[in-house]
C-alpha cells in the first residue's frame, strides 16, 4: 500500500486482507495517532490477526530502528497546557495505569472529570478526538515518563531516550 494515495489507502485498510510492509503499517498507525479529525484516519477498525513474513527480522533486526514521525503542532500551546493542567489534577482513581507497558487510560471517574473540566458532553465523540489525544499524551507525560530517564530537554527541545 506504500504507493497508494490517501483515499486508496483508506479503501485498502477496509479490506479483510491487507498486504503491506511492517514499516508502512507502523507509519500509517503513527499518522493516525496525530490526526485531529476521525474522518482522516486511515485505519478505521481493529484487526484480529496478522501473518508476518520474516518476523524474526522485524522483531530483532529492525527493532533497533524506531519509527518516529513528526510535524508541526496542529493545536495551539494553550490546548496542550490545558490538557497538562487537567492531568495534574487527577488522583489515582481517575485513571488506569500499566507501568510495565507504559499505558494509561482514564477511568469512568476520570472521563466524567474531563468532561466537566473541558465543559463537554462526550469526551469520546468525534469532534473531541484531538482533545482526547492531548489528554492521553498529558497523562503519559505526568504519570509515566521520567525526565532524564525517558527523555531529555536540551536547548528547549525534547529528546527521547531509547
Under CATH, the topology of the largest domain is which?
A: Pre-protein croslinking domain of SecA
Beta strand %: 5-15%
Low-confidence stretches: none
Q: How many distinct helices?
A: 6
- In what order do the strands lie side by side in the largest sheet? 1-2
The computed structural class is alpha+beta
Q: Give me the CATH architecture of the largest domain, please.
A: Alpha-Beta Complex
What key attributes describe this structure?
globular, 40% helix, two-stranded antiparallel sheet, single chain, alpha+beta, two-stranded antiparallel ribbon, Pre-protein croslinking domain of SecA, 6 helices
Can you offer a commentary on this structure?
InterPro entries: Helicase_ATP-bd, P-loop_NTPase, SecA, SecA_DEAD, SecA_motor_DEAD, SecA_preprotein_X-link_dom, SecA_X-link_sf. It comes from Jujube witches'-broom phytoplasma. It holds the Pfam family SecA_DEAD. One of its GO terms (molecular function) is ATP binding. The protein is an alpha+beta fold and 162 residues long. Helix content is 40%, strand content 10%. The protein folds into two domains: 59 residues, no CATH class; 84 residues, SecA, preprotein cross-linking domain (Pre-protein croslinking domain of SecA). It has a two-stranded antiparallel sheet with strand order 1-2. Strand 1 and strand 2 form a beta hairpin. The model has no long low-confidence stretch (mean pLDDT 85).
Amino acid at each position: 500500500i506504500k504507493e497508494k494515495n490517501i483515499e486508496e489507502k483508506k479503501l485498502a485498510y477496509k479490506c479483510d486482507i491487507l498486504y503491506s510492509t511492517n514499516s508502512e503499517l507502523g507509519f500509517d498507525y503513527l499518522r493516525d495517532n496525530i490526526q485531529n479529525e476521525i474522518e482522516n484516519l486511515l485505519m478505521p477498525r481493529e484487526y484480529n490477526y496478522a501473518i508476518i513474513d520474516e518476523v524474526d527480522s522485524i522483531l530483532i533486526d529492525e527493532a533497533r530502528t524506531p519509527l518516529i514521525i513528526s510535524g508541526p503542532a496542529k493545536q495551539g500551546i494553550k490546548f496542550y497546557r490545558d490538557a497538562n493542567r487537567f492531568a495534574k489534577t487527577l488522583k489515582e482513581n481517575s485513571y488506569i495505569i500499566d507501568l510495565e507497558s507504559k499505558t494509561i487510560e482514564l477511568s469512568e471517574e476520570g472521563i466524567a472529570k474531563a468532561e466537566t473540566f473541558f465543559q463537554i458532553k462526550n469526551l469520546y465523540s468525534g469532534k473531541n478526538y484531538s482533545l482526547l489525544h492531548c489528554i492521553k499524551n498529558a497523562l503519559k507525560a505526568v504519570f509515566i515518563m521520567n525526565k532524564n530517564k525517558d527523555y531529555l530537554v536540551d536547548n528547549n527541545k525534547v529528546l527521547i531516550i531509547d
